[in-house]
Design a protein that fits this description.
172 residues, alpha/beta, 5-stranded mixed beta sheet, 6 helices, globular
Length: 172
């Protein structure tokens, strides 16, 4: 498994990339990247475009999986690790399981951190979903890497969103 320092470095780069969404009409604190486990090569990187595209499935994790599948020309992402600025929601974690990723590393907590800014639709956790996964080996989870930095990303995004007069959709 990759070292904590490597995970932290990749999360910092992801936060910097995700901050780029703040300059758009649809700022988002949710970012994701996928790296090849053996070499560390960056395969895909995306931020959430749910509001921009009016598509509830365009979460950062799903988008980075789509990009990685296309870049590699295959459905299985074995040998790769997904990084996310936030703990994956049930849809995203299910996509990680279906993509057969080796692991998931995330920064902020969904219910403890993100929910205050972007209310979540479910409380199911990645751990709970992994328990039900049928493929072996099951993905590893590394929580709360650079959590403070990711928490700050949510605060800053909320400030940008408010300054631009942008509302979240109903119940969000």
């Amino acid at each position: 498994m990759t070292s904590h320092d490597t995970h932290a470095s990749r999360l910092r780069a992801l936060v910097e990339f995700t901050t780029g969404s703040f300059d758009t009409s649809f700022p988002s604190p949710f970012g994701s990247s996928i790296h090849e486990a053996a070499t560390g090569r960056l395969v895909a990187m995306a931020y959430d475009t749910v509001m921009r595209d009016c598509d509830v499935t365009n979460h950062a994790e799903v988008s980075s999986i789509r990009l990685a599948n296309r870049a590699l020309g295959r459905l299985s992402l074995r040998g790769h690790v997904l990084y996310s600025t936030c703990e994956p929601c049930p849809m995203c974690m299910s996509a990680c399981i279906w993509a057969e990723l080796d692991g998931v590393v995330f920064g902020a907590s969904t219910m403890e951190d993100a929910d205050a800014y972007w209310p979540q639709a479910s409380t199911a956790t990645p751990d709970e979903l992994l328990l039900r996964a049928r493929f072996e080996p099951k993905a590893f989870l590394v929580p709360h890497v650079e959590r403070g930095l990711c928490q700050d990303l949510f605060r800053r995004c909320d400030e940008v969103r408010r300054a631009k007069g942008l509302d979240l959709p109903p119940r969000r």
